[in-house]
Amino acid sequence: MTSARIRILIILGIVVAAFNLRPGVTGLSPLLDAMGEEIRLSATFLAIIGMLPPLLYGLSGFITPRLYARFSGLGLTLAAMVMVTIGLGVRAVIDSPWIFLALSVLALLGMGIGNVVLPPLVKSYFPDKVALMSTVHVGLLQFGTFIPPLVAVPLASDFGWRGSLLVWAGFAALGVLAWIVIRIVRPAPAAEVAAEVVGGSELSRLLRSPRAWALMTMTGLTSFNNFILFTWLPSLLTRSGFDAAFGGAMLALVTAIPLVLGFVLPTLAQKMTSAYLIVVGFCISLAVGYLGLWLVPTAAPVLWTVLLGIGISTFPLALTLITLRARDAKGAAALSGFVQGGGYLLAATGPLIFAFLIQSFDSMWPAFAVVLASVVVKFFVSHAACRPGAI
User: Do the record's keywords include Membrane (predicted)?
Assistant: First the structure.
């Protein structure tokens, strides 16, 4: 096989893998009400299913680099696609909520491994096209985030909620086939790049850095709200009288906005001395969106959704700040692991707390009080997180 065909094959593999890292999360939320009509879903189930994605993404950030050091990136990516395919495919056909959760763990762990493995693969096989291929990688990941909720309910209308979930297992199976071929071909990388193991003196230094903690907290609270909205936005809208298809469309919209802004924010942040004013604007947008969704949800649901989408767009900005504020390549790897690993673990508490408060009180004010409080905390810690200079 010629080098040009090998590069095309690797590009195809990265595209398919990146797309499959989110549909199992955002493609489920609009279907929870329909699923609950057939399978009894307890408050505990709803809390756990929302908590699992950030929890497992965070854990994967710490364990995958150690697996990468022992196994090849090609093999790990294939394993990740197999885990996603089996987890998503089998959970769609079972009737036990607890087995559904166990299979979700398998699928989400595969997605978390994919999150960590793809960037070093891009650097290994496209060292001269890192920026371009990183854009492809992130773009397909975001595309796989907002398309599933948009089509989940229409697919369920034609094939049932199980059929709707199986569609994403089918896409993951395409990923398995692509990476089996790549694994057989075993293309030689243009440059050997490993996933950095986060630890040692660099991690100890970050643990003593208030600015590193501030950046991790800012990132974690952004994801805290991301995963609450991923899990609960469709249900909150249906509780207000909208149909499930509208709830799915609004979830697609709230995930699409960070994708669009993600193309602008890195350049903007690089030109600004401090990105704090951007974060302030995002915090205000998020707070107003939450207040509208809580107090007058039927008045302007599209506007509230747009404001929420703008508000959670701090995440691509935070990823840019990791690169801008790191001292060197080793520092960037350690800071990325610390910020994303710790941030995802913090984010895992969001859906759990929100679900508990929604289910435990007749009023929704305690749940919205928590998310609004998280916005206030993010407002204050972001000043240190955005301050210029190396961390």
Answer: yes
